[in-house]
Amino acid sequence: MSQVQENIIMVDNPRVIKVLNKRFTKQILNCFTDTSKTAAEIASSVSFPKEKIYYHIKNLLDNEILFIADTEIVKGIEQKKFLPTAKEFEIKGEKKTKIKITKDQSKEKKQEEENRIKEDIEKQVGEKRIEALRKINERRRSSDKRLTGRREKLARRKKKKTIFSGKDNRSNQNRRQEKENRKNEIRRDSFDRRFIKTEKDISQEKKENIFPIQNGKHQSIKYKNTLLNLNGVNKAITFVHSGNNVTFLQATLGISGFQINRINNYQLPIKIKNHEIRTLP
Predict the structure, then answer these.
(1) Does this entry carry the keyword Coiled coil (predicted)?
(2) What tens digit of pLDDT does each residue of 42-94 get?
(3) Residue 55 φ/ψ, nearest 5 degrees
(4) Of 40, 146, 165, 194, which is most buried, counting CB atoms within 10 Å of its CB?
(5) How many CA atoms lie within 13 A of 171 on its CB side?
(6) Three-class SS of residue 42?
(7) Residue 36 in contact with residue 116, Cβ under 8 Å?
(8) What is the pTM of this model?
(9) pLDDT digits (tens, 9 = 90+) for 147-173
């Protein structure tokens, strides 16, 4: 790998020629000027993700198309700058592939591309839309559908019409009549049958009320205190802070209620040896 950029390099290696003929390789080479660039600057120039540009740069380094021109330490991290090994790559038997593009040429190319895009947009706006013409028969019926001719008697699916010999229960059911339609004013004012309780609904409610659930049943204080004792609640303490006075109370839980064992009154600030308590947490 050469550390100085040459003017022209003759390329005869098929592997290197294949890499040079790639469109993305040409974009990377064309983004260089006389100054070297870092990987982030190369990715920004070709509009490519920074995380994925390192693979392509490593490939170009392995094929000696790029070389490390300079290294710089930024915040304790070594940052490399790259340059093409030559200003022009000449492939044997083909025209020269130039990679050096001046700033004026790049500006002219951008301007030409912008003008071309504007012309395409104006041309598209000026063109008249051609509406699709369809025949009435094609619109009414698809070509893959069956013809309109009726099936013959032998080709019908249901050859014999059976007569229903069972019992018709529909007349015994509570069916809607014409006057019950929602479009009629009388039907709107009447109650909806869905909300009218039937004998079946009433019998179901009676079954559910055989063992009614009593919510909010009154429980005595002795019963509650017994449950607290069984759950391990036997003693209690409390502090009452009023102004500068603090009242401490200690009690034991019995079946009939709390039994006070100890009451102490303190006045703030409380001094204990070298410590002074001005308020309770």
Answers:
(1) yes
(2) 888 888 888 888 888 888 888 888 888 888 887 777 888 888 888 787 777 66
(3) -60, -45
(4) 40
(5) 2
(6) helix
(7) no
(8) 0.34
(9) 555 556 555 555 566 677 777 666 555
